[in-house]
Amino acid sequence: MRKSRLVSIIVAITIVLLHSTAVYADLAEEQKKLEKVQQEMKKTESQLKNVQQQKNDLIKELERLNNQLNEAENQLGKVERDLEATRKELERVTEELEQAKKELEKRDKLYKQRLRTMYKNSGYGYLEVLLNAENFSDFISRFYLVSKVAAYDISILEELKEQRDLVQAKQDEVKEKEIRMLSLKNDLLAKKQEIKTVTASRNNALAKVKSEEKQLDLMLAELEKTSKQITQTILSLSQGGKFIGGKFVWPAPGYTRITSEFGWRIHPIYKTRKYHSGLDIGVPWGKKVVAAGAGKVIYADTYGGYGKTVIIDHGGGITTLYAHNSSLRVKVGDVVTAGTTIALSGSTGVSTGPHLHFEVRKNGEVVNPRPWLGI
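The chain above was modelled as a monomer; its predicted structure follows.
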């Protein structure tokens, strides 16, 4: 009877040991799967970051091109207005030139006609008028009159010629201005077309980058989904039972400034609206990160965008997560108490600077850490 009872106890112990070994083997296997998924997440996040940087660069370039196009169009509009004014000025100057030429021709014609009339009526020209003087006094008088008439005619003709030449010079100047402005207009049209061509090319590139960004977002979402499923599996394999965490303590001793709250926010790197699953606490590089409560370390390694991460199981389905650390001070299987140093703060993973990302999960689902920390 005693022997039979002893055998039963040995069999029971063996079954428990075998079950425990199987559980730990399953846990190790799931952790390997999680690590692999996290590596893929890290790679995808890096690709996504690069694509988003390309997108931002293209958007900035398109803004610059749009500004250049607006500037070119404004300059073109000004040149066209100036060109129109120049053409009107050219029309006016051309009319003035034609009028000056007509006036000169008219005055020259009158001068020649007077000479012909004088000769026809008297049979003499200016010279004959002078030579027909009766005496010296008459000659002086005639010479004076002839000189006055000739001088007047000549001065009028010279003034008209000068006016014609001035108008001709003005017309030439306006024509040169028109040619320069036409050249400038053609240059601006060419520049405008060049900007439009480059803009079209960049818009095509932006469309491709946005499509790639969308695909990477979908991939990352799928990886996150897989990661959560594996985490749930790890939690199911971890110690169950009652909650043993006790009253939680602040995980970043000496540093209480919360830089990002739990819930929806604009991601500081991706600039998209994302759900923030914990509290970000501003902590300088290399400072102590401690366990918030008693429990067992079920994860201590790099965890995708979380960087170097520690996860502690506190029993009763409650776990805490500590991310972006520079180095870890515990390993899987370690039993810790509240206040035990588990890591040193840092900025590993997807992070804009040194800080501690702290999460509390209940049955794998994130909950607001504030009530657990008594704040």
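Helices lie at 2-122, 126-131, 136-237, 369-373.
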